[in-house]
Amino acid sequence: QVQLAESGGGLVQAGGSLRLSCAASGRSFRTYAMAWFRQAPGKEREFVAATKWIGGSTYYADSIKGRFTISRDNAKNTLHLQMNSLKPEDTAVYYCAHKAGVTPEVTTGFGSWGQGTQVTVSS
User: How far apart are CA 9 and CA 118, in angstroms?
Assistant: First the structure.
């Protein structure tokens, strides 16, 4: 139904910036919210940020609040994550996620996932 393709990852020095993008495609789909998650080596996948598709309400993990900004382009079905003041602990594979319908919590219950894009922050 929904295919997600992340891009924009790479290698950056601490204090630098990266902008991730996620393109959603499919024959017919609805979007309630999209989000970014990340998974570092040896750790479980964790929530980073989410946005409602209509209205654009945003939600952030405490660990990145004030440094990352999530945004979306509804016309292009594209999600973005602007990452500033990057730290080595931000190093992880970043995954795009999509949910079609309303859920009690915006930051959980995503049904579709991208393949991930690697972000590496050197010290």
Answer: 5
Is the C-alpha dihedral spanning 91, 38, 57, 22 positive or negative? positive
- Over the stretch 69-109, which tens digit does the pLDDT of each residue have? 999 999 999 999 999 999 999 999 999 999 999 999 999 99
Q: What does the alpha-carbon distance between residue 12 and residue 44 come to, in Å, rounded to a whole number?
A: 23
Cα separation, 61 vs 76, whole angstroms? 26
Nearest to 49 by CA among 23, 29, 67: 67
Q: Is the Cβ–Cβ distance between 90 and 39 less than 8 Å?
A: no
